[in-house]
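Fold this sequence, please.
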Amino acid sequence: MTDWDSAYPAPAKINLFLHVVGRRPDGYHLLQTLFRLVDHGDTLRFAPRTDGRILRLRPLAGVPEERDLCLRAARLLQEASGCRYGVEIALEKRLPMGGGLGGGSSDAATVLLAMNRLWRLNWPRERLQALGLQLGADVPFFVFGRNAFAEGIGEALKPIDLPPVWYLVVEPAVAVPTAEIFAAPNLTRNTKAIKMADFSAGWGAGRGPLLFGQNDLEPVVCGRYPEVARALAWLRQHAEARMTGSGACVFAPFAAEQDARAVQSRMPEDMVGWIARGLDEHPLRALAD
């Protein structure tokens, strides 16, 4: 998958737990989380330009050009590398905005990975990760391309092997602004920091689809967005469940696909949900070494 005619995937992530363990002097929150890639996401296609211009074929509704992460990623890489070529970007959007699935960050990472190869830059992964951090705290994870225990603001990554798990993800019909949730006065900001060994042995031994800890943002989101609280309450009637990221999406893990589909079949008609398999690594990980 290294040519201009290919479709390039931008997979979603879910946070198996998300702890807020402190705050930096600049206001950024210090986190500990476990990122997992899943096989559901957006798709991007690229067409070359020789005039140096970087364009989107179909603008994203409600997202002005200066905030479009695909355009920002391509322009940042172009400027940093001194590349004289341009690109046209087509995005097939499946992941909801404000859903806590990392959709925009994943799109940006796919742009960096794909253009690194298509523009023949051959930058190493670490250099792309550092560039991606300028776009958002989750972008380095998608460039890293492995399930990971993350610390700092999400950029300090340690790979972890996870067992095969299927996830039922429910999408409440609401977009949750991340900044609003992190600014909430009642957000827990002092969860005790943990070590990777505290949880990794359980997952590594394959003892089933465990959920460790909690999502510290979940009570704040549920208190402000009844749609999220309802989806989570329904899902918890059938399985252990949790919100991902800063919401709005919620998920439940299952050891077998048929178990996930059995619960999905009982979803209320006004709820939207889908099933995804946990990935071991990003489909485009080989594009940066």
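Residues 9 and 43 are 5 Å apart (CA to CA). The first strand starts at residue 8 and ends at 23.
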